[in-house]
Protein: OmpA-like domain-containing protein
Organism: Emticicia aquatilis
Amino acid sequence: MTKKMKKVVLLAAAIAYLGSNEAIAQSNLKSIGAPINTREYREHAFSISGDGKTFVFVQDRPDGTKVFMSSRADKSAAWETPQLIKTITDKVQKGKIMGTSLTYDGRELYFDAIFPSGFGDRDIFYAKRIGNEWNEPANVGEPLNTAMYEGSPSVSQDGKMLFFVREKFEKYRNTESCYTIWVANKTDDGSWTNFEKMGEPINSECERTVTLMPDSRTLIFSSIRGGGAGGFDLYQTELQEDGTWTFPKDVDFLNTPNNEEYTAISGNTEEVYIEIKGDIYVSPLPNKFRGARQVPVNVMVVDAMTKKPIDASVFVAMNSRNSASFSAKNGVSLMQLKAGNNYTLACEAPGYLPANQIKVSLENVNGTETINNTIEMMPKNIAYTIRVLGPDNNVISNAKIRVFDLSNNQIVPLDINNNTRVVFGNLYGLTVSGGGNADYTGNWIPETNDADEKFVKTIKLEAKTTSTPVVAAAKVDKRENPYVNAPEVDMSKPTETFKLKSDPNISFETKKIYTLNDVYFDRNSIIVKSEYYIDINRLIELMTLNPKLNVQLSGYSDSVGDAVINQKISLRRAKSCADYLKRAGIDPNRMLVKGLGEQEIIKDSKGKEDTSKSRRVRFIVY
């Protein structure tokens, strides 16, 4: 019998079996059809991207294992003719690829294989996609891969968590290969760590494959255990808030006396893909197996000046404890977030200021709608024009201008039209002379609100005078510090304690000084780094829950340089934190901002100043 005839016979047997099995018949299983399924070959080891537009699968042929990718315009369109992923196929030396896992955005593919560059029996590899091309696969490396068997990879939607199987052993009838299920976490440098062998009741007697659903907290895995339909059956378990997993439930609409092993779940969790007798089938996923309802959220990150997409990191926070990060390649970041919650999105990109946070409410989202957001990021390095006016407000075209970057004591170049490039939030010194007027010497911190003035820095020179200057009383510059209306701290009031709903273990005590969990600043900088956003969100939550509370934000500097300059920059650091609170909806009249400069220098154990810790902001809630 030829292989083609054998495949036809097997297909006919599968159809007959499906028709005779009530559980499967009720599941509405349907062949994915051509051009993915074929009569001649086995199709298996499949995975699908979060948007449902990319499908990767493995095909076993007489001349070896082939890896293919098929695409479609949208989830309702037909699959296009599969394209061979040659860079991976050419590496398969012996044995088959048994499992694949696309990241949610479809840009990376994890798979298990036996390659010459492996560490042992079977290892996990990955490849990155650029356009429709895949680069050379790479071993994920030690210590995830060992001399033991590692296979069936399944990666979370943010690419930071990987489930897999390990430790091959024979248990049943000396023919079935059994494994245990493990999980690992990805570090910022791209390596894998925190390996954990999952305990009972997930690892029970004999497990073989594992699939992480798009919500990144629900697993479907295959197992031989008591009470099953026969052979390997599929089970589902969910991660709880306390870190435990629910007792696995039987995926009854798919399980039969045969082996059910590999699955893939669509991004909207509405469909499940499964292999039956060498072909791929798809079925609606019943509500009870869909896990927590997820909402597709798409984020486009663009340059605020050019509106062109940029690579960035997108930080997602539900509260002070629950957060995740996603990459935005070419400006696009695709994710799914749990329905019924509110989220805060923030961005960070090299060469750009942290973007204003965006609030995303999924409390009343209906159907399968997709939430789209665009985040604009202001480049740190921006072009400015220095304009010099005389006492009569006429432009002095031949003025002599010098700009100093006080972070490195370097002169910043200007062209013949007095155009220059500076970094937002850095401190600069300016000296200007011209037209026989009094010279100007001052400091300058470029800020994002300068965009309203077309990034023009205007210096007005005063006429020279020989009279004794009159020192006017100091006035509050509302632009420099608009946060002056809140009352001063009343230390005579009794102390109160407040707790956060998001984390009852965190409490705030009025009149007690809190540092914003190590919110430190670079030298001569006023920029609040996005790594501190989640910590400051705790203060936002506290003030939102308690609308009668006020806060005093006090900025500090180190003792390096001029004390007057240090006082100004400390004020602007506190103002940057207050601006963050204001953008989150906190009334500016509830905030009191002070710049205390060098008043409280931090010293180390040897009595030497720790300049990095002196540059900080702290607050008092009252």
Remarks:
- Residues 316 and 322 are 8 Å apart (CA to CA).
- The chain has four domains: 43-269, 294-377, 381-460, 497-621.
- The helical segments are 3-20, 22-25, 86-89, 533-545, 563-583, 611-614.
